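User: I'm putting together a teaching handout on how multi-component assemblies are represented. Below are the sequence lines for each component of a complex, exactly as they appear in our records. Could you produce the 3D structure of the whole assembly as structure tokens, so the students can see both representations side by side? Please keep the chain order the same as the input.
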Amino acid sequence: MKVLVAVKRVVDYNVKIRVKADQTGVDLSNVKMSMNPFDEIAVEEALRMKEAGTAEEIIAVSIGVQQCQETIRTALAMGADRGILVKTDDALEPLHVAKIMKAVVDEEQPGLVILGKQAIDDDCNQTGQMLAALLGWPQGTFASKIEFSDGKANVTREVDGGLQTLTLNLPMIVTTDLRLNEPRYASLPNIMKAKKKPIDEKTPEDLGIDTAPRLTTLKVAEPPKREAGVIVEDVADLVNKLRNEAGVI
Amino acid sequence: MSVLVIAEHDNAELKPATLAAVTAATAMGGDVDVLVVGSGCAAVGAAAANVAGVAKVLVADAPEYAYMLAEPVADLVVPLARNYAAVMAVANTVGKNFMPRVAALLDVSQISEISEIVGPDTFIRPIYAGNAMATVQSSDAIKVITIRPTGFEKAAAEGGSASVENLPAAGDPGLSSFVGEELSKSERPELTAAKIIISGGRGMQSGENFPIIEAVADQLGAAVGASRAAVDAGFVPNDYQVGQTGKVVAPELYIAVGISGAIQHLAGMKDSKVIVAINKDEEAPIFQVADYGLVADLFKAVPELEEELKKLPPA
Ligand SMILES: Cc1cc2nc3c(=O)[nH]c(=O)nc-3n(C[C@H](O)[C@H](O)[C@H](O)COP(=O)(O)OP(=O)(O)OC[C@H]3O[C@@H](n4cnc5c(N)ncnc54)[C@H](O)[C@@H]3O)c2cc1C
Ligand SMILES: Nc1ncnc2c1ncn2[C@@H]1O[C@H](COP(=O)(O)O)[C@@H](O)[C@H]1O
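Assistant: Of course. Below is the structure of the complete assembly, with chains in the same order as your input.
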């Protein structure tokens, strides 16, 4: 089957972001950008499906500014076959991304779309579920295992109480959790090869998608700061302070 | 204007996080109704009717809702949501699963994991692992919201006298079915409801060493949590993970053992009232948020802690 993978360009997870002094947003100038870590897991899962003979073609889709091409290149260097960049400078909400992804799915007709469970910038955890809704497909969210048999898939999900396994009809949506796999690094030869792989470019307008905002960000502020406390002498001192100073035990 | 809160429960009991959602819904202004979706969940409906501030309880009790699969639950919630100004659920793995599906079917943007309500259309939510707090205003006709229970006081579980109405099920679209589950069994409190939590990280070295943490947990009546590194290494199951992409907790006391304090971990526990860190590296970032830091080898300090707690007279 054909597999579509959504790859978002986000601030690298190692970066400690700073809120702009005028509280209009987060300062993204000169900040290292990377593929959303959950999307690396999504790409890896698609690659393993291809290696196992379940997937024929892997298409990496990214939506956003021109530089999202770099994110697609990363996916191509890992082993994806081709890319689609839906280019826009507008700030998008997961609903818009899901609508754009749906338009791409309508064109490409994949049997599976894999997304990350959460983008580590907006922390929304919505897009995959929304895409599933718009397509009328089942959703296997927060997946830690996917197995295919008889035209269906068993998806094991990380839930609050432990693990839950569902059978889903195909086509379906999967969103990745951390334990699904460990993504590979792209090798140098594959990085070179990726430069020749095709990336198709379109815009939301080409796909007929309205990206008018539904949410307005009024302010972005620093969270309340926590002050460092004291270093205690030893365990007895700790227990004493927890009992007599903090009163929590 | 009224708000529909979708209850968190296990078909037997109403979970305390629902009480936080009722408080959040009340802050929006207007009536608060509670929807209980489940299978064999009549007792939950009755409990929800007792919650202070609830006007009406709707109960949809059918076998297809036993495991809260997103596809049938969304089909049930969407037509109901059209009668409300807002629908609200707790941002746990159930709410995070079906609510965005509801939002998309209503053609609205979901507002995820809000920690504060500014007004009926304006909310505060953490972004970038809680390193920034965004105030967002929604222009959608129906607000679809998930809440962080740690951000809201719990409504009183008693004192209400809401009416209870049974709803017909909306049917199962047949896209998905339940196969099985492996739930962690524990006599200890649930992580998100516990007053005290002790968590272990990579410094624990193996799952075999977690009993030293569990022994302290048992002295304190605490829940046991972990960092991602401890879960990835297989020391403990996935549902122990605290953090940006795991559980968000805010207990009275959080004890981090052998955890360095990466921003992704801090995102899940930095609103705890009192934080204790036990780490052998005095430079570990966890000490920057800890109220009490103990620089020590955990394999010595944690068993000592258990002994000291045993000696402690009752409070
Ligand atoms: C997309 C993404 C999502 C993530 N989500 C989460 C999340 O939800 N939750 C989370 O926790 N992490 C998350 N992480 C991972 C996070 O970045 C860190 O890698 C992780 O929190 C580190 O875990 P740790 O502190 O246990 O391990 P380490 O960083 O390796 O720290 C181990 C600590 O133990 C101390 N230690 C070792 N031996 C001893 C000893 N004998 N006595 C005392 N101290 C000792 C060391 O000094 C060190 O400070 C996420 C990462 C990514 C990329
Ligand atoms: N602009 C985007 N481009 C490509 N994929 C995206 C984009 N936004 C979100 N996604 C996908 O949706 C997932 C969840 O994002 P979110 O719902 O924003 O937390 C991400 O891990 C990506 O797989």
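A couple of points students might notice: The pocket of flavin-adenine dinucleotide (ligand 1) is lined by residues A 13, 37, 120; B 201-203, 227-230, 241-246, 258-260, 262, 264-265, 268, 279-281, 284, 297-299 (CB under 6 Å). Chain A has six helices and 13 strands.
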